[in-house]
Design goal:
Strand content: under 5%
Number of strands: 0
Largest sheet: none
Helix content: 55-70%
């Protein structure tokens, strides 16, 4: 590769890296997360995981929750309809 092209490419990469570090999305200018939003997300996460583990107890056991030991998913037609819905 000719020296001039290599030098131009190196300069372009360096400029991009510097611009990315000090751009509008830098950590100093990011808004702090809203505490209410974080709590809402935590409650949604808890609701989702508890429902998921109730429907698929083997996933709960694989995640280390031994309260679900010995349980199997409901593969009856009603259980499958509930999961699909």
């Amino acid at each position: 590769m000719p020296t001039g092209i290599l030098r131009a490419l190196s300069s372009a990469v360096l400029i991009c890296l510097v611009a990315c570090q000090h751009g509008p999305g830098s950590s100093a200018q990011r808004p702090q997360p809203d505490v209410v939003s974080a709590r809402h997300f935590d409650s949604l996460l808890e609701e989702f995981t508890s429902g998921h583990f109730q429907r698929l107890p083997n996933a709960a056991v694989n995640s280390g929750l031994h309260a679900y030991d010995g349980r199997l998913p409901d593969f009856s037609p009603e259980g499958i309809r509930e999961r699909v819905a």
